[in-house]
TrEMBL record:
Residues 23-160, 191-320 form the Activator of Hsp90 ATPase homologue 1/2-like C-terminal domain. Belongs to the AHA1 family. Coiled coil: none annotated. Pfam families: AHSA1. This is ATPase. Gene3D superfamilies: 3.30.530.20.
Amino acid sequence: MPITSVDKDLTNLTMSVVADFPVPLPRLWDAYADPRQIERFWGPPEWPATFTRHDLYPGGRSEYYMTGPGGERSHGYWEFTTVQQGHSFEVIDGFAAENGQPNEEMPSMQMVFTFEETPTGSRLTNTTYFNTLEELEQLITMGMEEGATAAMGQIDEVLEDLASFAADRALTAQILSPTQVRISRIIRGAPQQVWNAHHDPGLLTRWLLGPDGWTFTDCQVATAAGETFRYAWTDANGENGFAITGEVRESNPPHREVFTETMEDMDGPPTLNEQNLTAVEGGTLLTLLITYATEEQRDAVLATGMTDGMETSYARLETELLATA
């Protein structure tokens, strides 16, 4: 159990949890920066968390839900107010409705996470600031202290798992729901470099090619919300060409971009893609949450070998970035 102390201050309306870990500071930070990792310990064991959004930058937002033993869900959100990369972040933490919007009937609170090196590894101090004594007592009565303690007890196993989150691991795809898939890969390069590689036609046409031998025949890039893009390819024989089109819905360089995507001349609604770039040890964690219209559409797309083609392209992207570094 990594928890060193839990302190409730009824005068200053705070609760502080201090935990020590025998791992380097960057390893502990990455456990909170990576949605694949934080969801393995943020909820208590009987209420595991699923993060559908995790924007670790000032002005960013996280959305998650915890699933109970009977399949019931409790939704929450974070609004990041400050982030000091590798050292601390502050959030407004609150309960949410199913659509991710704040639940105004429940209290929200400020939470500060501070990370520091120690002679034996690293330390996390998590301080929660409550608005009133009544809210503090309400949440303590609801089991906030016990939940935090139980959740924190799961971090050691995550920190020991180096292979699952290594910078040299290939792309992973996780099915989060009947209509959502999360693609994750660490790319060796800074977030700004990875962002540029997605929006500079000169770079894009060198790596976003799928299997070897394919080439671009059209590369119309969108760089701002409201703009549309079109990419088209053909194989080495000039045959089997296809194209994808879409519209950018949200753009916050170099961290987050939301866009639709559909294959040209094919029936079916577009997907909604939410791409996040987060600085982690070893490079940039690229997280792509894809929302499909139906489970059937999700399965049909995955069956095409989409993830294999994405891994080939991302590996090529990494090579391009390292070559120009």
